[in-house]
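name: query_chain
kind: protein
chains: 1
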Amino acid sequence: MSHHEEKKEKPLSEVKREKMINFRDMSTCEATIQMLEKVASDGFETAFTRAADMRPCPIGADSACCKHCFMGPCRLNSKDPYSRVGVCGASIDTIAARNFARMVASGGAAHTDHGMVMLDVFREVVNGNIQGYRIQDEQKLRSVAESIGIQINGRSVKDIAVDLYKELERTYTQVEGEIPFVKRVPAKTLDTWRKAGIVPRGAMREIMEIMHRSHMGVDQNFDNIVKQCSRTALADGWGGSMVATEISDILFGTPKPHVAGVNMGFLKENQVNIIVHGHEPLLFEAMIASSNDPANIEKARAAGAAGINLLGMCCSGAEVLGRHGVPHAGNFLSTEPVIATGAVDAMAVDVQCIMQALPKMAGCYGTRFFTTNPRARIEGATHIEFHEHSPGECTDKIVSLAIERFKNRPGPVTIPQRRDMGVHGFSHEYINYMLGGTFRGSYTPLNENIINGRIRGVAGVVGCTNPRVKQDYLHVELVKELIKNNVLVVQTGCSQIALAKAGLMKPDAAVLAGDGLQEVCETVGIPPVLSLGSCVDNSRILIACAEMVRIGGLGDSIADLPVAGAAPEYMSEKAICIGQYFVASGVYTIFGVTFPTVEGTQFHKLLFEGLEEQGFGKWGFSTDPYEMAHLMINHIDKKRAALGIMGERERKLFSMEDRRTAEG
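structure:
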């Protein structure tokens, strides 16, 4: 068959005639299933049906192809990977390492660019050039500044903020030296990085260099390429992502736990429903202000609405869910189905994880769909550009057009009546407070309960949802198995929305945990699964790991800790970069769905074995949630054995009140 005779994709109607799709095989989310069935009955398609009708390229999935020059593309045989090389002579190890490097570069660029935007806004706020935002957490400003060596005693907020901006700018622009937040890295971990030559200099330099190295005819040693993968990824995790999280907390407030809701049932038929989807908090914070503006509320009432109802999706939604308690409509794979309710009057998006199919779906149901960021326009969408110096101009216009759509809704509304409540908004600072109070805040109780065996270890379960696997299933089953085995779980991104829908972010979910973890949760009053925010907020997990090392008793390096990580349903290049910075930091990290290597190659062995032998963490892979859980548990037990804490010791657990009484 020639290139021009390739088989064309069939429309959904033809696909359905050939095979009936059972959406219960594709998702565990009842609201999403209900809407998928509605979309199918209406004759439209979604990511789920497109995935069912599109076979993934097996060579590409194994990262056994190269298109970095025009002598190819070159395809290697993943079943016999050393049987041939590319036209230039590139081996499977070089090809896979180059492909992996470019994933890390793209994923790292996404988060570091996000952080750069936040830092730019912070600078303009500090200099008085932006009036729409302000520093809301002065204590966080002082603690972040102090953590990287900035003098804070006797100095004004503005002076500290100016110095903080100048210092954090080095995260991006510096060409030599070490990025500022490496001051937070445990000494032994940092020593491992220095010996390997992977301490990040500056994000722009590392991303530029990794792109150069992966160009045809440059770096052709997979081991050397992986070193730059680590350096670039660390520039994200301990650089761009950490900057984004810390500056967001300073400007908009550090999250504190509160009860908040998740799922499509929080749409309201009698109100103007606006969904914000994306990753940068600036648009959402401005939208909160516009939605609460009395003038806009009065316009909505004049149009017959009871009010304006604002909801989040994906990661910007996760961020305001934890910071402000704004309800969350659903994670990545629910973005098309939620539009099918007919109740969404407007969806406004900024950057990252936004499907090009959304404007088309919005057109099918009359939803107003708006792009707002100059870096991310979509064909078929209405573009209303967002400017940080005048944020309300964009968000007020979106609210006005959403009200207009409410007044003229084109068809009936179908809202799944599913509302799931949970406790959201944990942060490193609040966990510290939670474990010891205002004056005795410390990770000591966490470390002690890991040492005495009540808590076996800590797992970070994070990441996306992917239509190649059953939505939310791997996240939920993995976490249930982990907490049953006394592993405390922390979450970010779309994963935490999956867990919230499953009811695992409520304190009473502790009954599903093992006896030890259950006792700790009931004593402290927390759920066995703690939500930390958006995918960029994985940096909170790094800070927590560093604090566990600092407190003592669990080794001298992050690689010594009884911790593990997983992204069971990942789909983006950001996830690869996140995984690599956790591995480089010392954490065993397991991915599901697929993994871009060929098992048995030298490159695969380096990622899955060799890095750990060099003092780092390592990669893992499984598509079964129970196998994944026990791989993580076995690793945690291995680390416990190395620390000499495999046995359990009886110890009375004190509540916060007991501790204050005993020490007061």
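note: Residues 1-18, 649-654, 659-664 have pLDDT under 50 and may be disordered.
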